[in-house]
From TrEMBL:
Its EC number is 4.2.1.17. Belongs to the enoyl-CoA hydratase/isomerase family. CDD domains: crotonase-like. This is Enoyl-CoA hydratase.
Length: 248
Protein backbone atom coordinates (compact mmCIF):
# COMPACT_ATOMS: atom_id res chain seq x y z
CA UNK A 1 0.00 0.00 0.00
CA UNK A 2 1.35 3.43 -1.01
CA UNK A 3 1.74 5.93 1.80
CA UNK A 4 -0.01 9.25 1.17
CA UNK A 5 2.37 12.18 0.74
CA UNK A 6 -0.29 14.86 1.29
CA UNK A 7 -2.39 14.80 4.45
CA UNK A 8 -5.90 16.26 4.41
CA UNK A 9 -8.04 17.69 7.19
CA UNK A 10 -11.06 20.02 7.19
CA UNK A 11 -12.33 22.37 9.87
CA UNK A 12 -15.30 24.68 9.18
CA UNK A 13 -14.76 24.84 5.45
CA UNK A 14 -10.99 25.26 5.52
CA UNK A 15 -9.16 22.30 3.98
CA UNK A 16 -5.62 21.81 5.28
CA UNK A 17 -3.24 20.03 2.92
CA UNK A 18 -0.02 18.92 4.63
CA UNK A 19 3.09 17.97 2.69
CA UNK A 20 3.96 14.76 4.50
CA UNK A 21 7.33 13.46 3.34
CA UNK A 22 9.65 14.60 6.13
CA UNK A 23 12.29 11.99 5.25
CA UNK A 24 12.92 13.89 1.98
CA UNK A 25 12.30 17.32 3.56
CA UNK A 26 9.11 17.49 1.49
CA UNK A 27 11.12 17.70 -1.71
CA UNK A 28 9.05 18.13 -4.85
CA UNK A 29 9.14 14.57 -6.16
CA UNK A 30 7.11 13.22 -9.06
CA UNK A 31 4.71 11.57 -6.62
CA UNK A 32 4.32 14.50 -4.20
CA UNK A 33 3.69 17.04 -6.99
CA UNK A 34 1.10 14.75 -8.58
CA UNK A 35 -0.66 14.07 -5.28
CA UNK A 36 -0.73 17.74 -4.30
CA UNK A 37 -2.14 18.72 -7.70
CA UNK A 38 -4.87 16.08 -7.32
CA UNK A 39 -5.73 17.30 -3.80
CA UNK A 40 -6.02 20.89 -5.02
CA UNK A 41 -8.24 19.72 -7.87
CA UNK A 42 -10.52 17.95 -5.39
CA UNK A 43 -10.76 21.16 -3.32
CA UNK A 44 -11.69 23.10 -6.45
CA UNK A 45 -14.67 20.80 -7.11
CA UNK A 46 -15.90 20.69 -3.51
CA UNK A 47 -18.37 23.48 -2.76
CA UNK A 48 -17.92 22.91 0.97
CA UNK A 49 -14.29 24.05 0.80
CA UNK A 50 -14.02 27.82 1.32
CA UNK A 51 -10.21 28.08 1.48
CA UNK A 52 -7.10 25.89 1.51
CA UNK A 53 -4.22 25.96 3.99
CA UNK A 54 -0.99 24.48 2.63
CA UNK A 55 1.40 23.36 5.37
CA UNK A 56 3.85 20.55 6.18
CA UNK A 57 5.07 17.95 8.62
CA UNK A 58 8.68 17.98 9.81
CA UNK A 59 10.98 20.99 10.02
CA UNK A 60 10.93 21.85 6.30
CA UNK A 61 8.06 23.23 4.24
CA UNK A 62 9.86 22.10 1.09
CA UNK A 63 13.50 21.69 0.13
CA UNK A 64 12.79 22.21 -3.57
CA UNK A 65 13.09 19.70 -6.39
CA UNK A 66 13.65 16.06 -5.47
CA UNK A 67 16.99 15.26 -7.10
CA UNK A 68 16.42 11.50 -6.94
CA UNK A 69 12.84 11.45 -8.26
CA UNK A 70 12.26 14.73 -10.09
CA UNK A 71 8.85 15.52 -11.57
CA UNK A 72 8.47 15.93 -15.35
CA UNK A 73 9.55 19.40 -16.58
CA UNK A 74 5.96 20.60 -17.05
CA UNK A 75 4.70 19.39 -13.66
CA UNK A 76 6.01 22.15 -11.38
CA UNK A 77 4.82 25.10 -13.52
CA UNK A 78 1.48 23.31 -13.85
CA UNK A 79 1.28 22.95 -10.06
CA UNK A 80 2.07 26.63 -9.48
CA UNK A 81 -0.54 27.62 -12.02
CA UNK A 82 -3.12 25.33 -10.40
CA UNK A 83 -2.58 27.11 -7.07
CA UNK A 84 -2.96 30.50 -8.73
CA UNK A 85 -6.06 29.53 -10.71
CA UNK A 86 -7.82 27.72 -7.86
CA UNK A 87 -11.09 29.59 -7.26
CA UNK A 88 -10.44 29.53 -3.53
CA UNK A 89 -7.68 31.29 -1.55
CA UNK A 90 -4.62 29.21 -0.75
CA UNK A 91 -2.84 30.16 2.48
CA UNK A 92 0.69 28.90 3.15
CA UNK A 93 1.48 28.01 6.77
CA UNK A 94 5.26 27.76 7.10
CA UNK A 95 6.67 26.45 10.36
CA UNK A 96 10.05 25.40 9.00
CA UNK A 97 12.56 25.98 6.24
CA UNK A 98 11.93 26.70 2.55
CA UNK A 99 14.48 26.27 -0.18
CA UNK A 100 14.69 26.66 -3.97
CA UNK A 101 11.58 25.26 -5.68
CA UNK A 102 9.66 25.32 -2.41
CA UNK A 103 9.77 29.11 -2.68
CA UNK A 104 7.87 28.89 -5.95
CA UNK A 105 5.05 27.03 -4.20
CA UNK A 106 5.11 29.66 -1.47
CA UNK A 107 5.02 32.47 -4.03
CA UNK A 108 2.01 30.98 -5.82
CA UNK A 109 -0.07 30.99 -2.62
CA UNK A 110 -2.39 33.96 -2.10
CA UNK A 111 -1.27 34.52 1.49
CA UNK A 112 1.70 33.16 3.42
CA UNK A 113 2.46 33.16 7.14
CA UNK A 114 5.70 31.97 8.70
CA UNK A 115 6.90 31.13 12.17
CA UNK A 116 9.69 33.28 13.55
CA UNK A 117 12.14 30.38 13.21
CA UNK A 118 11.47 29.72 9.50
CA UNK A 119 14.34 30.31 7.08
CA UNK A 120 14.45 30.83 3.33
CA UNK A 121 17.08 30.55 0.57
CA UNK A 122 17.22 30.58 -3.21
CA UNK A 123 19.98 27.96 -3.46
CA UNK A 124 19.85 27.37 -7.23
CA UNK A 125 22.97 29.34 -8.20
CA UNK A 126 25.04 27.36 -5.69
CA UNK A 127 24.33 24.10 -7.51
CA UNK A 128 24.71 25.50 -11.01
CA UNK A 129 21.13 26.27 -12.05
CA UNK A 130 18.74 29.25 -11.91
CA UNK A 131 15.35 29.97 -10.26
CA UNK A 132 13.68 29.99 -13.66
CA UNK A 133 10.19 28.51 -13.26
CA UNK A 134 9.76 29.73 -9.69
CA UNK A 135 10.50 33.30 -10.76
CA UNK A 136 7.09 33.41 -12.49
CA UNK A 137 4.99 33.90 -9.32
CA UNK A 138 7.76 35.66 -7.41
CA UNK A 139 8.81 38.49 -9.71
CA UNK A 140 5.42 40.28 -9.54
CA UNK A 141 5.18 39.93 -5.75
CA UNK A 142 8.61 40.30 -4.15
CA UNK A 143 10.73 43.45 -3.78
CA UNK A 144 12.98 43.52 -6.88
CA UNK A 145 16.19 44.62 -5.16
CA UNK A 146 15.83 42.04 -2.42
CA UNK A 147 14.99 39.30 -4.92
CA UNK A 148 18.10 40.19 -6.92
CA UNK A 149 20.25 39.90 -3.81
CA UNK A 150 18.93 36.58 -2.58
CA UNK A 151 18.65 34.90 -5.99
CA UNK A 152 22.18 35.94 -6.99
CA UNK A 153 23.88 35.05 -3.70
CA UNK A 154 21.90 32.10 -2.35
CA UNK A 155 22.05 33.64 1.14
CA UNK A 156 19.78 32.34 3.87
CA UNK A 157 17.39 34.85 5.47
CA UNK A 158 14.74 34.75 8.16
CA UNK A 159 11.00 35.22 8.45
CA UNK A 160 11.11 38.91 9.37
CA UNK A 161 13.10 39.66 6.22
CA UNK A 162 10.78 37.44 4.16
CA UNK A 163 7.85 39.54 5.35
CA UNK A 164 9.69 42.83 4.69
CA UNK A 165 10.37 41.93 1.06
CA UNK A 166 6.89 40.52 0.38
CA UNK A 167 7.81 36.85 0.13
CA UNK A 168 5.42 36.12 3.01
CA UNK A 169 2.46 38.10 4.26
CA UNK A 170 3.50 38.10 7.92
CA UNK A 171 6.01 36.58 10.29
CA UNK A 172 4.63 35.35 13.59
CA UNK A 173 7.87 36.42 15.27
CA UNK A 174 7.94 35.08 18.80
CA UNK A 175 4.18 34.50 18.73
CA UNK A 176 2.12 31.43 17.94
CA UNK A 177 1.71 30.86 14.21
CA UNK A 178 -1.80 29.44 14.51
CA UNK A 179 -2.94 32.40 16.60
CA UNK A 180 -1.72 34.70 13.81
CA UNK A 181 -3.60 32.61 11.25
CA UNK A 182 -6.87 32.40 13.19
CA UNK A 183 -8.32 35.84 12.30
CA UNK A 184 -7.26 35.39 8.67
CA UNK A 185 -9.12 32.09 8.35
CA UNK A 186 -12.10 33.59 10.18
CA UNK A 187 -12.17 36.39 7.63
CA UNK A 188 -12.14 33.91 4.75
CA UNK A 189 -14.99 31.95 6.33
CA UNK A 190 -17.05 35.16 6.49
CA UNK A 191 -16.53 35.99 2.80
CA UNK A 192 -19.11 35.14 0.13
CA UNK A 193 -17.68 32.30 -2.03
CA UNK A 194 -18.34 33.94 -5.41
CA UNK A 195 -16.98 37.29 -4.25
CA UNK A 196 -13.93 35.54 -2.86
CA UNK A 197 -13.28 33.79 -6.19
CA UNK A 198 -13.70 36.99 -8.21
CA UNK A 199 -11.44 38.93 -5.87
CA UNK A 200 -8.74 36.29 -6.19
CA UNK A 201 -9.01 36.53 -9.98
CA UNK A 202 -8.34 40.26 -9.78
CA UNK A 203 -5.35 39.81 -7.50
CA UNK A 204 -3.69 37.03 -9.51
CA UNK A 205 -4.30 38.38 -13.02
CA UNK A 206 -0.84 39.94 -13.41
CA UNK A 207 0.90 36.87 -12.01
CA UNK A 208 -0.96 34.59 -14.40
CA UNK A 209 0.03 36.80 -17.32
CA UNK A 210 3.64 35.81 -16.66
CA UNK A 211 2.69 32.13 -16.89
CA UNK A 212 0.88 32.61 -20.21
CA UNK A 213 3.79 34.55 -21.70
CA UNK A 214 6.87 32.96 -20.16
CA UNK A 215 6.18 29.51 -18.67
CA UNK A 216 7.34 27.61 -21.75
CA UNK A 217 10.58 29.55 -22.01
CA UNK A 218 11.33 29.24 -18.29
CA UNK A 219 10.63 25.49 -18.36
CA UNK A 220 13.06 25.04 -21.26
CA UNK A 221 15.68 27.18 -19.53
CA UNK A 222 15.39 25.15 -16.34
CA UNK A 223 15.65 21.84 -18.20
CA UNK A 224 18.71 23.00 -20.17
CA UNK A 225 20.51 24.18 -17.03
CA UNK A 226 19.78 20.99 -15.11
CA UNK A 227 21.20 19.01 -18.05
CA UNK A 228 24.37 21.13 -18.20
CA UNK A 229 27.86 20.48 -16.77
CA UNK A 230 27.59 23.03 -13.95
CA UNK A 231 24.45 21.35 -12.61
CA UNK A 232 26.01 17.89 -12.82
CA UNK A 233 29.00 19.07 -10.83
CA UNK A 234 26.94 21.18 -8.46
CA UNK A 235 24.51 18.37 -7.66
CA UNK A 236 27.35 15.89 -7.19
CA UNK A 237 29.11 18.27 -4.82
CA UNK A 238 25.87 18.82 -2.91
CA UNK A 239 25.29 15.09 -2.48
CA UNK A 240 28.93 14.57 -1.46
CA UNK A 241 28.72 17.48 1.00
CA UNK A 242 31.64 19.40 -0.51
CA UNK A 243 32.13 22.69 -2.33
CA UNK A 244 31.90 22.64 -6.15
CA UNK A 245 35.09 23.72 -7.96
CA UNK A 246 33.88 27.24 -8.72
CA UNK A 247 33.86 28.25 -5.05
CA UNK A 248 36.71 30.75 -4.43
Amino acid sequence: MTTALVGRNRVRGVETLSLDSPATRNALSRALVSELADALGACEKDDDVRAVVLTHTGNTFSAGADLKDPPPPHAVPALLRRILELRKPVVARVAGHVRAGGLGVLGACDLAFASGTATFAFTEVRIGVAPAVISLPLLPRVDPRALSRYCLTGETFGAAEAARIGLVTQSAGDGDLDEVLAPVLDGLRRAAPTALARTKELLTAKVLEAFVEDAGEMTRLSASLFAGPDAREGLTAFLERRDPPWVL
